[in-house]
Amino acid sequence: MLMRYVMSSLRISLLMMIVLGLGYNLLVTGFAQTVMPERANGSLILNDQAEVVGSRLIGQENRDQAFFQNRVSSIEYNGASGSPNYAPSNPDMLKRTSDAVKEWHTQNPDVQIGSLPLDLITNSGSGLDPHISPAAAEVQIPRISKLTGISPSKLKLLVNKHTEGRELGFLGEPAVNVLELNLELKSLMPE
């Protein structure tokens, strides 16, 4: 009698592993591939040679000052998501923020520190945010114009073109995807 219950439990467990562990995942993946294949495949961005250069969903480190810079990343854009969640009074947070302000001012001496948007010196919750605010993009225009020779007005138009509105018209804030902006900026640069 006990053996019958054990075997019955094992069969149900095996069936549930197949249905929920394999079947459900195949169903959801198939649905996603049918309804939104671009998103299901990681929202990848391709260059002119059809090579993957990144994702619309994950920020990338870019140290070239001729391009727009992302938010500060507490994880150095290594692909793992997370943030130390320091309180504003934490000495490590104060030092990191102070260092970010000094570095920013060194790279952008024409911009007043008081006009520096906070998203350029603070990190997002995931540490991989691909977006910055339109103000954070605009404040970088003088440096980029000086380094690339592209006029500030042309760069402003580029930022406006890549500014995404609020989700559903009322959720979140307008944002600029840095990778997409930099890819178009690169196409405007002289060889």
From TrEMBL:
Q: How does it sit in the membrane?
A: Single-pass membrane protein
Query: InterPro entries per the record?
Result: KdpC (IPR003820)
- Judging by the UniProt lineage, the source's domain of life is Bacteria
Where does the protein end up? Cell membrane
Membrane-spanning parts: 12-32
Alphabetically sorted, this entry's keywords are: ATP-binding, Cell membrane, Ion transport, Membrane, Nucleotide-binding, Potassium, Potassium transport, Transmembrane, Transmembrane helix, Transport
Q: Name one Pfam family in it.
A: KdpC
Q: What is its main location?
A: membrane
This chain's function reads: Part of the high-affinity ATP-driven potassium transport (or Kdp) system, which catalyzes the hydrolysis of ATP coupled with the electrogenic transport of potassium into the cytoplasm. This subunit acts as a catalytic chaperone that increases the ATP-binding affinity of the ATP-hydrolyzing subunit KdpB by the formation of a transient KdpB/KdpC/ATP ternary complex.
The UniProt family comment states:
Belongs to the KdpC family.
Record text on subunit structure and interactions? The system is composed of three essential subunits: KdpA, KdpB and KdpC.
Instruction: Report what the protein is called.
Output: Potassium-transporting ATPase KdpC subunit
Report which gene this protein is encoded by: kdpC
